[in-house]
Design a protein that fits this description.
five-stranded parallel sheet, 10 strands, Rossmann fold, alpha/beta
Length: 227
């Protein structure tokens, strides 16, 4: 297993949320902004627009993605799931459990912090959040897992970091929510929900094992001003 100290993807950046998924949840202790540009870093100025997923919806999305990963790769024997801190790691573990439930195989799961590989490293403060621990990926299908896909800069950084740890046969990307607004040519292979958003809106994800409470995904944005 490869290990590397990692840094907090949740470091403040109002344009690119940082190395973790790309969404966060408003409540729950320790929930900070997501990695790729997050408008919700503005916090108090945003209001709830709508619920996107409740706990059951999120569970179904994870189950569907698990089946799609197996179908796409004609099985799961060569699949390694690599979650991006923080919620991507939790999602990778859920996907591994879901796949194991119907394929009767144990899926290796790793954790990756790509903060030091971001292209804005000199523009924001960074701090360690947890170690990078990735199983052997040489000759395997490495599936990067994150909560929200936004500008694509976190994924680019994660790909750079991953390829320093081995030479996988293929790299695929699974995300819970794709909110659009790409700044780099990045596209997810597996998506729980495509969610059109405004540039100033924020997708907030809550996972019970990370944030406490019930799972959920919500869309927040600036309050509507009426004349």
């Amino acid at each position: 297993m490869h290990a590397r100290d990692s840094v907090d993807k949740s470091a403040a950046d109002n344009h690119d949320p940082g190395p973790s998924g790309e969404g966060r949840f408003a409540s729950g202790a320790g929930t900070g902004p997501s990695r790729d540009a997050r408008p919700n870093d503005a916090g108090p100025d945003l209001v709830l627009r709508t619920g996107v997923f409740d706990a059951d919806d999120l569970r179904r999305a994870v189950t569907r993605i698990a089946h799609e990963i197996v179908e796409r790769n004609h099985g799961a024997s060569d699949v390694v799931l690599v979650g991006l801190y923080t919620r991507g790691v939790a999602l990778a573990r859920r996907l591994a459990a879901a796949i194991s439930s119907f394929e009767s195989v144990t899926i290796p799961v790793g954790a990756l912090d790509a903060t030091f590989y971001r292209d804005d490293i000199g523009l924001r403060a960074v701090a360690p959040i947890g170690p990078t621990e990735v199983p052997d990926i040489s000759g395997k299908v490495a599936v990067l897992v994150d909560d929200v896909l936004f500008t694509g800069r976190t994924v680019r950084a994660a790909l750079h970091a991953l390829l320093e740890l081995g030479r996988p046969r293929a790299v695929q990307l699974a995300v819970l929510v794709d909110r659009g607004h790409r700044e780099l040519p990045v596209r997810a292979d597996f998506v729980g929900k495509n969610l059109p958003t405004g540039a100033l809106e924020d997708v907030r994800v809550r996972l019970a094992e990370v944030d406490g409470g019930e799972d959920g995904v919500e869309l927040w944005g600036p309050p509507v001003v009426t004349p």
